[in-house]
Design a protein that fits this description.
By secondary structure, the chain is an all-beta fold. It has a single domain, classed as Beta Barrel (Porin), CATH 2.40.160. 2% of the residues lie in helices and 63% in strands. It has 1 helix and 20 strands. It has an 18-stranded antiparallel β-barrel. A hairpin with a 2-residue loop joins strand 1 and strand 2. The longest helix has 8 residues. It is globular. 21% of the residues are buried.
């Protein structure tokens, strides 16, 4: 388990600039699936994807600004080729005299996205994602999980600078589940370290390192229902911290109470409610106290159809937004999916995000819609077709933009 940190939602796991891209690229499974290639006990999963994508606003502009020669800023469409090789290695480790228990494993997963634009080569990107895991399951419910997630990507920095910028982020976490000394209680402790470094000197004020400590005490209320209190404490240190900069070192306390359930009334999900207190060292007026909530659930409407619901309210460190050090994000998303045939699945989603920036008049409203269709040709190859629409409205008009994207791809996984 990697805990959700109090202050951010944009790193490879919980707080950095590339969370969504990281999760999409790497997937959420820790142990992996049985591979088609074996070398002794080592399981090898090579994978490769090739995708052709079109978008009608390659530079994410509003279309209402002016260029240096006083011409109206125009949107530019483009065709992008995305090649994505990857490799996963998993080594199961049998328990024994010197390593009691079973189901131990270590794994390493690498994925890259090579994005090449036909007409706007300055937008080309080479993004790399690496995840390593070591999982040890000892007797009596004593588990230890080490994980390191690394990404080297190009993307919009956020806030008032939406051009592409190189950023390297790394998250290391240790999760310890203590032995089951009590029938219905468990104790989970997580330590996580996050480090983010921008390549450009002009953006170094957003470089930071954070330490997060989380304690969670689950109680098995019923065979399929668990409730828990959760407390986390985060220390964030910026590379450059000065009185004139709202992005100063901070201490964050978050107290949550939650419930998790599985296969109960055709639903599986979790809900966490709590409060977050963010204290900044240099500028007291930038301190933030806010309610926090995270909901995620799926509802099985039938054997072939389900609905996914996500909603939340979370504070995050804001980058490059004048006068602001924190943003509050309220979001919701609904996913509908249906297994049309055994090998064909379609889905669609609708989403809404509202982000308010502390000590700033800026507010972002983002509406999203998307369609996805995947057909499995066989157990190691599938094709997919995707379409997405994003409308970002900002009360600073020139920061608004609309983007339509569509793609067709073929994916191999052995």
């Amino acid at each position: 388990m990697v805990s959700n940190c109090a202050y951010s939602q944009d790193t490879p796991d919980t707080h950095g600039i590339n969370a969504k891209r990281y999760q999409e690229a790497m997937g959420k499974s820790d142990r992996g699936q049985p591979g088609q290639i074996h070398w002794g006990p080592l399981i090898i999963n090579p994978k490769f994807s090739e995708k052709i994508e079109t978008e009608d606003n390659a530079f994410q502009v509003s279309g209402k600004g002016r260029t240096l020669d006083d011409k109206r800023e125009g949107k530019k469409s483009d065709i992008i080729n995305v090649a994505s090789p990857g490799l996963r290695l998993t080594l199961p480790i049998a328990g024994g005299r010197f390593l009691p228990g079973k189901n131990h494993s270590i794994s390493a997963d690498w994925k890259a996205d090579y994005k090449n634009y036909r007409d706007n080569a300055q937008q080309n990107q080479h993004n790399h994602f690496i995840k390593a895991n070591a999982i040890f399951s000892f007797p009596h419910g004593f588990d230890v999980h080490f994980q390191d997630s690394y990404s080297d990507t190009f993307g919009a920095a956020g806030g008032e600078t939406d051009n592409l910028h190189g950023v390297i982020s790394n998250t290391f976490s240790t999760n310890i589940s203590l032995p089951d000394y009590f029938r219905n209680f468990d104790v989970d402790f997580t330590y996580e370290n996050f480090d983010q470094q921008y390549d450009e000197k002009g953006l170094e004020r957003a470089n930071r390192n954070a330490h997060n400590f989380t304690l969670r005490i689950p109680y098995n209320l019923a065979p399929k229902v668990t409730v828990f209190p959760e407390y986390s404490y985060t220390i964030t240190e910026f590379q450059t911290s000065r009185v004139s900069d709202p992005q100063s070192d901070s201490h964050t306390n978050q107290i949550m109470a939650g419930i998790e359930w599985s296969a109960t009334a055709r639903t599986t999900g979790s809900l966490k409610l709590g409060y977050t207190i963010m204290d900044f060292d240099d500028i007291e007026k930038h301190n933030v106290n806010t309610p926090t909530a995270i909901l995620g659930m799926t509802v099985a409407l039938s054997r072939r159809m389900e609905i996914g619901i996500q909603a939340g309210r979370t504070p995050s460190v804001s980058e490059f937004t004048a006068g602001s050090n924190v943003s509050i994000n309220n979001n919701g998303r609904i996913d509908f999916s249906r297994q049309v045939w055994k090998d064909w699945k379609i889905s669609l989603y609708m989403s809404y995000d509202k982000t308010s920036y502390h000590n700033s008049e800026r507010e972002d409203d983002i509406y999203g819609f998307g369609l996805f269709s995947k057909y499995d040709i066989n157990k190691w190859m599938n094709v997919d077709v995707q379409y997405s629409y994003k409308d970002r409205h900002v009360n600073f008009e020139l920061q608004s933009d609309r983007i339509n994207k569509s793609s067709v791809g073929i994916n191999f996984a052995f």
